[in-house]
Amino acid sequence: MTGSLTIAGLGPGDEALITPEVSAALARATDIVGYAPYVARVQPRDGLTLHPSDNRVELQRAGEALRLASEGRDVVVVSSGDPGVFAMASAVFEALEDAPEWRDLPIRVLPGVTAMLAAAAACGAPLGHDFCAINLSDNLKPWPVIEKRLRLAAEADFAIAMYNPRSASRPDGFGRVLEILREAGCGERIVVFARAVSTPEQRIEMVELREARPEMADMRTLVIVGNSATRRVGRWVYAPRQVR
Ligand code: SAH
User: Fold this and answer.
1) CB of 80 shorter than 6 A to ligand 1
2) 174 lines ligand 1 (CB under 6 A)
3) Global pTM value
4) Does the domain formed by 116-238 have CATH 1.25.40.10?
5) What range(s) does the Tetrapyrrole methylase domain occupy (predicted)?
């Protein structure tokens, strides 16, 4: 019996933003594997086993998903947003490196609406010109790498989408991030704090970077720093199509 492994993105929160392809995979799954809050977004039903786990056990979770698939189960590993953006798809391929016996399993990665795209749409078009995305958590990379990338992104005048800006275990890093961007001359750039986008708790705040405070972000916030040409029109913010 051949099982399958699907790595799927559930989008930023609203059910309407789950793609039909992901809904179909969830409907035929026998097992759902993932971080507990994401697994909780999947409707329980007969014949479906849920495997919620802690946030810090990504590789172990990926290995478990591969093992279940090798035993003939139709497994869906769920992430929020897109599974390839700071999420489980990389962990599955990393686990596969150590497990040649599973490389012939049918594996699919199904895209989802990542937080930065939902956040950008909620406030206008701040990613309409060149941009980059950075994960501000130093759980999986050294802090100096984050600082270096921020400085270079500022110098290159990218709009910058920031994931995982601030958590209870990392309360101070984001203040430092704002400081680095001020030092890099970005004080007048527009910053968008997009919290819980596409959920009933959605809140969008826009300020100039020099007025931004660390408390404006938490783990449910996606932060977008505009480029030097980004501007506001009414309640919207956008990056002009042309940069001179
Ligand atoms: N794979 C996910 C990202 C996981 S990292 C994706 O593609 O979106 C988790 C971070 O994503 C959070 O700390 C936050 O910065 C951002 N995020 C996820 N959902 C969000 C939402 N609904 N609103 C704002 N930010 C969100």
Assistant:
1) yes
2) no
3) 0.96
4) no
5) 5-212
